[in-house]
Input
Amino acid sequence: MTASNRYFAPCPRGLEETLVVELSRLGASRVKAVPGGVGFGGDLAVGYRANLESRVASRVLLSLGDARYANEHDIYAFVKSIDWPALFSVERTLRVDVSAIRSPLRSLEFVTLRVKDAVCDRFREKQGVRPSVDTVMPDVRVQLFLTADAMTVYLDLSGDPLFKRGWREASGDAPLRENLAAGMVALSGWQPGTPFIDPMCGSGTIAIEAAQMMLGIAPGLGRGFGFERLHGFDAGLWKHLLDDAGQRVDRGRRQVAVFGSDREGSSVVAARANAARAGVDRAVQFEVADVRRREAPAAAGILVSNPPYGVRMESRESLELFYPQLGAALKASFAGWTAYLISPEMKLPGQLGLKASKRTVLFNGAIECRLFEFRMVAGAHR
Output
């Protein structure tokens, strides 16, 4: 790693520009969004800091080089040319992942095997032994990305995906990944101090992400990272970044400005447990309440939520009854608020009886969704 490392951070589709802003704030250079992620440059500290503090990235990958290719032999030769023993110990277990866009190669599984062989053969030639493969909990992850005629080899600095913050042990049905929840909060424009609520909170992911933002808790403070298992890991630099992030946590805040509720008591129990592990139990208030009958916690604020939809547990018939009731409740109880609801249901505004002022395309995994914005002005509804 040098002062001019090239990195790539994948993220949920639709959050690329949000991630650009975030990485720029963290000191990254040459920041450029592409579909599904953001490329950027920086020194070792930038790579570490992106892992520690990015709320939107799914991973941080270090580019080891790129080249043209025509077949699997070209890929094997290029991957083998990389000095893998200089990057990690042979005792570390290995996993290889390959992704592609418009690659002419017929079998990515075969390419994956050739990449693994190239890494292991380089170790065997230099040290006489080869690393073991572990596809479930590897120490080191190598990624190859293919286009129609070019390849890039990456070393994964994150280990587990960055949306695994380390605090969510209890989850309700169909939970959002933490980085998508954080991206939704960012897209809402919410600022700490403004009242915030998720009235269909499930296990509390959206509200907890907002509460951590309010308290200045870096999302990676409670977990480990893949770069800690690589040669050249700078323990002193990492300690400095951890200490700096820890000093920015607002440990004295007692005013509750983030709220969550759910009609299921078991979900609220899970949300409270997750909030405690995330260090925000004093900053977020969870309660059992049905969104159709609860009152707003303030005269105005930001509402962000993931309402139930057809791929979840509810029947289509119950959803057809629920949505008009939800819309009526928002108009009656949340006048003065701005609501943001994510859903794959493109006709959601009509089902709610509300007019969307904005629609943002987001992907919840492979599911194409819209983040709908509704400005809840008193007395204004269709």
